[in-house]
Specification:
Three copies of one chain form a homotrimer.
Chain A: H1 5-8, H2 11-41, H3 67-94, H4 100-122, H5 129-152
Helix pairs in contact in A: 2-3, 2-4, 3-4, 3-5, 4-5
């Protein structure tokens, strides 16, 4: 069996692995938040889930939408839309032998921006808090894409 | 050109590649399932698609929603929300030189849980079938995240 | 620190990195398109965003849905549903020592198909333009999955 210590001794890749595992775990937390609001507010999307709201004839009345649940779902979808390109571009960037401190700055800014975005979306904080958090994360990903294409373009 | 056999001779990475290709193909099947229900039930989201429901003035009446189509779409979105963190964390975990049999156990459990989740969502099976399938997949991803951060944390 | 030039001198991987960075950047553009239509048409999903539509008591009237905004959001979600399996399968495929010109053909076809899909969705073009673009991208991903499993199956 091959020893992969070579890859895992690469500091930029290890930093990417650590920060990205945290940002993906944060995204997974949104599923828990959705379930929490669905159960405490008795708001379900499927008839078979309504028994969690209470038994009996009227259980179907829990088949409805709710502002808070929809808000968490929008925050979750926004995470997906932004963390997927961050992960793809960041993985390739971290393997392209970037400057270590520049790379870590990118990963830290993205993690902070996405955590702040979630807080600003769920409380909610007044705008432009959420827009700015979104733009910081977006800019980090574009910056990594630009650096990657500048140094490694192969079409 | 460089020989990548080193990476592809790593058994944990090869196992991850095989199981993950299957789980991603399963997710792609959800697009086919959505199209199938849209065409057989004549339920479309875009005016330009309505001609698949039949010609003529009344084609616009197919611009509607349908319980079964929405169910498939929710199952698809749930796949995305869970397979994205599994892929990201699992890829990094499989590169971190994990114990082979532990790693394969994680990949197998996740694949089984997501297939069962889809079956439970589409039939549908009564709860808590779907919740349990979700929790198994969720737990597998968290377990890989924990193992990765424990052995390789670099912040 | 380890030298990663080995990986980045692999031509199939470099080609994957370049094409995928472009396709992920294209997906990120969908966020901008959504914001553009939300701001110009004054259509918002959150009460705290309505001040971008204008001040005053009536700002809440901008809390509504709009055909064009929903169209862009569907195109964005379709991107996510298709680019996530492409990225996962394509990354593993590009690391499996594929034939270089075959690999580049796959990446080019996928990039072209997704750009055409977005154009066909947003204008919109009459069907079957969008369906064909979807099927080309879908076929490329399945073809990579098939080649990967054929050469590297390890269960």
């Amino acid at each position: 069996m091959v020893d992969l210590t070579q890859l895992m001794e690469n500091e930029a890749f290890m930093a990417f692995a650590s920060y990205t595992t945290i940002v993906l775990s944060k995204m997974m937390f949104m599923s828990i938040a959705t379930s929490f609001y669905r159960l405490t507010r008795k708001v379900f999307a499927n008839p078979e889930d309504c028994s969690y709201g209470g038994k009996g004839e009227n259980a179907k009345k829990y088949l409805r939408t709710d502002d808070k649940v929809e808000r968490v779902r929008r925050a979750h979808l926004n995470d997906l839309e932004n963390i997927v390109p961050y992960f793809g571009i960041g993985l390739l960037y971290s393997l392209s032998d970037p400057d270590l401190s520049t790379a870590i700055l990118h990963f830290r800014l993205f993690l902070g921006a996405r955590i702040y975005h979630t807080v600003a979306y769920l409380l909610p904080l007044p705008q432009p808090n959420r827009v700015l958090a979104f733009l910081v994360g977006y800019g980090v990903t574009l910056s990594m894409a630009f650096r990657l294409l500048k140094s490694r373009l192969y079409l």
